[in-house]
Amino acid sequence: MGISWFYVVAILLFITNAATLCRGGITSSYVRKVESSEDMPLDSDVFRVPHGYNAPQQVHLTQGDHVGKGVIVSWVTMDEPGSNKVLYWEANSKIKQIAKGTVSTYRYHTYNSGYIHHCTIQNLKYNTKYYYMVGTGHSRRTFWFVTPPPVGPDASYTFGLIGDLGQTYDSNMTLTHYEMNPNQGQTVLFVGDLSYADKYPNHDNNRWDTWGRFVERSNAYQPWIWTAGNHDVDFAPEIGEPEPFKPYTKRYPVPYQASGSTSPLWYSIKRASAYIIVLSTYSATSKYTPQYRWLEAELKKVNRKETPWLIVLMHCPWYNSYGYHYMEGETMRVIYEPWFVKYKVDMVFAGHVHAYERSKRISNIDYKIVSGECTPANNQSAPVYITVGDGGNIEGLTTKMTEPQPKYSAYRESSFGHAILEIKNRTHAYYSWHRNQDGFSAKADSFLFFNRYWHPVDESY
């Protein structure tokens, strides 16, 4: 009888310990109404063409240099090239300056683009509001932006995070929710998949135009930092389009040469106290490729005494507990993850999976086939991995999750939304994720980050 009870107790202890070892974090109890995402009609006001002959449209900004003193202004004119100049001035000054840009067009299958303008404005003052004007005559349009503070360890700054946006009713809700957030970012870190033009017959590039008009209400006033996703590749040799990323690179330039990159698909910038590295999941990543060589050299350049916060953007997540795109980033992870741990990357933001998830600080760099060590382990030198591929695109939500929730997963939810990263100083940053269905200031998930270089303690408690 004693032996029987011994076995019962042993089995119960085994089950309890096994549950503890396998238990993950929180799978949200919030249940979003399951419905398909639907594109907004083309006559929606969000796609409206601005008034006036040849009026500039699809106006958007991104950083124009490595340190935040430059901005790239882009826009499209449909009827003729028009002026390729930008008139700009400080908010409290009457002195106007002129910057001259370039104009180009491209053809994709049977589509002919409008006239695409790009103009880089250099040597701006930090922490300054500027107005800028594009177009001529009665079709001139005026916008504004604010430059970041000087690069430095205690420069506070707020970023918005959006991914996989598209142009559905849910996309509009996401962008509106972000715009109405009282802690709206000063710059958006966009983790890929912009227009989803490739979801339409022959990759209908008119959908690049509608998307550009849709996001102008935000992107003309604050820079968006671009990351390329799989729906931005537009590789379609079957219709005579063998050049990958053609519409994306023609429309959305980035300052890649400022960081020594040979491709606009991977690059870095400094902004306030953050060093941001953008990687391309859909370019070659293996050893000795251009992206590999660049990243190897780039990580060595990061001075954490100047820019304490080291942030990486990519499209495909390395850690993902949903049923879709599971382990798609594994090859890239195996190659680059040891560097992320060595250089103490603070956080990695990705999209691709149309849901939300935040990991614990974990790594799988000890993976060994012979020993069988293949489970991600807690590692305080590793980043937190966050998936924000929940912008609201036509493909809809990812709802299937792996069960049980992996131990490395801290929080996950199948909803659309956006995130906010508020860098406070060199040691602390506050992060929050906001589902579309809540009030503008409501936080469905939040996390206090401790910097890996200046304050490398376990914040998971």
From TrEMBL:
Compartment(s) of residence: Secreted
Annotated EC: 3.1.3.2
Necessary cofactors: Mn(2+); Zn(2+); Fe cation; Mg(2+)
Chief location bin: secreted
UniProt keyword terms in alphabetical order: Disulfide bond, Glycoprotein, Hydrolase, Iron, Metal-binding, Secreted, Signal, Zinc
InterPro entries: Calcineurin-like_PHP, Metallo-depent_PP-like, MPP_PAP, PAPs-like, PAPs_C, PAPs_N, Purple_acid_Pase-like_N
Recorded family membership: Belongs to the metallophosphoesterase superfamily. Purple acid phosphatase family.
Protein name (record): Purple acid phosphatase
Protein source organism: Nicotiana attenuata (Coyote tobacco)
Record lineage: Eukaryota, Viridiplantae, Streptophyta, Embryophyta, Tracheophyta
Gene designation: PAP2_2
